[in-house]
């Protein structure tokens, strides 16, 4: 069976101030053409279809168009909700859509109920694990509220169901989360709970292929556990990413081969750094003149009208960062730099130590972490509602 694995469409999202709807529509065209031209037997979409719980109308219309075109091809599609989606909204009409071959999996309780598809070699069971917010699903899975625990419990249901299937039944799991070994970018929303966001790849043991979503870079965690990445860039941290989908061939015996199918990107991304006058004349930067650009200026004193002057050479400059050259001991060094790479929890603990002269004890650290988890859970509830 030939699968096309994609995820993280983020329909409705902009790239800085650039409306990406036309680029997202071009991706849908490319997706449909790939399904038709490459003999795809099933499409899997591993979450974050939309960029927010209540997407703009134009994004909903594009999603509707995508569903109709995929259904018209007669190729089944299996799709899960991600942490950016409203599971309830995305799942509306799932029963009716299934009759057209579009299978939406947005309910945590249905993790162990597969979509059964078949090829000439027999059945393939597709298990859709929507994004599992630990605080909201721990009771459903009778486990503690952390990502590894709830995902492991969901996978236990998958393996229990698979054990009831005839020998030789192949299996595919769709999941949305942060698996250990994956490389994040700046454009994924933080899903940390209890200080831990990542789960080990071994949680997917026992299935033939795990089609992951959430991280925006295409990645191979293991031969059978892969991220497709987002089809378009959504932050400058993705400047070096090759945007693609996975074309996966699942053999009769569960053997697997995977190839990347490149996605159309409107413009390349580039990051440049240096003093403004140098950037404006450096011949090595000519290759970036038509790219979407992030420029970091290192001038000791902020130059006049830097964006306008940069745009004269680089008309698609979207982001301007100031990082002035200073001696390492300079007390005016950037506050943001001092916080770089630190978690919310660490920043809060440092603040407590700064205010009262001593950091929080173990109980106080737990109170802080519980407060951060409660805020994240509350944000998720508001998006789902």
From TrEMBL:
Q: Which UniProt keywords apply?
A: DNA recombination, DNA replication, Endonuclease, Exonuclease, Hydrolase, Nuclease
Please give one Gene Ontology molecular function term for this protein. exonuclease activity
Gene3D superfamilies found in the cross-reference section: 3.60.21.10
UniProt superkingdom: Bacteria
Pfam families assigned to the protein according to its UniProt record, in alphabetical order? Metallophos, SbcD_C
Residues in domain Calcineurin-like phosphoesterase? 1-216
Which positions fall inside the Nuclease SbcCD subunit D C-terminal domain? 266-354
Q: Which family does it belong to?
A: Belongs to the SbcD family.
Q: What does this protein do?
A: SbcCD cleaves DNA hairpin structures. These structures can inhibit DNA replication and are intermediates in certain DNA recombination reactions. The complex acts as a 3'->5' double strand exonuclease that can open hairpins. It also has a 5' single-strand endonuclease activity.
- Record note on quaternary structure: Heterodimer of SbcC and SbcD.
Q: What is this protein called?
A: Nuclease SbcCD subunit D
- Provenance organism: Streptomyces gibsoniae
């Amino acid at each position: 069976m030939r699968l096309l694995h994609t995820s993280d469409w983020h329909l409705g999202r902009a790239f800085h101030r650039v409306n990406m709807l036309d680029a997202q529509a071009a991706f849908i065209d490319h997706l449909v053409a790939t399904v038709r031209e490459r003999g795809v037997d099933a499409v899997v979409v591993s979450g974050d279809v939309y960029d927010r719980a209540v997407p703009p109308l134009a994004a909903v219309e594009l999603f509707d168009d995508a569903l109709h075109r995929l259904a018209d091809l007669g190729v089944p599609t299996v799709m899960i909700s991600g942490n950016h989606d409203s599971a309830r909204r995305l799942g509306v009409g799932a029963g009716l859509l299934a009759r057209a071959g579009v299978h939406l999996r947005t309910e945590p309780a249905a993790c162990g109920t597969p979509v059964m598809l078949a090829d000439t070699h027999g059945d393939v069971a597709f298990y859709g694990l929507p994004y599992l917010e630990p605080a909201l699903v721990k009771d459903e899975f009778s486990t503690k509220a952390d990502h590894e625990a709830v995902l492991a419990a969901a996978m236990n249901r998958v393996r229990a169901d698979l054990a009831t299937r005839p020998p030789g039944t192949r299996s595919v799991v769709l999941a949305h989360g942060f698996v250990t070994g994956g490389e994040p970018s700046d454009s994924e929303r933080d899903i940390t709970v209890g200080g831990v966001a990542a789960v080990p790849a071994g949680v997917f043991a026992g299935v033939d292929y795990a089609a992951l979503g959430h991280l925006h870079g295409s990645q191979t965690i293991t031969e059978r556990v892969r991220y497709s990445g987002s089809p378009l860039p959504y932050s400058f941290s993705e400047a070096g990413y090759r945007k693609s989908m996975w074309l996966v061939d699942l053999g009769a015996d569960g053997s697997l081969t995977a190839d990347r199918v490149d996605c159309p990107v409107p413009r390349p991304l580039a990051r440049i750094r240096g003093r403004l006058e140098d950037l404006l004349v450096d011949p090595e930067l000519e290759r970036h003149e038509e790219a979407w650009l992030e420029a970091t200026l290192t001038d000791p004193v902020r130059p006049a009208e830097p964006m306008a002057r940069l745009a004269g050479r680089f008309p698609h400059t979207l982001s301007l960062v100031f990082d002035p050259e200073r001696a390492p001991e300079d007390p005016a060094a950037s506050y943001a730099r001092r916080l770089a790479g630190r978690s919310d929890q660490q920043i809060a603990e440092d603040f407590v130590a700064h205010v009262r002269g001593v950091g929080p004890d173990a109980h106080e650290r737990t109170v802080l972490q519980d407060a951060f988890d409660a805020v994240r859970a509350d944000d998720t509830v508001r998006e789902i509602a």
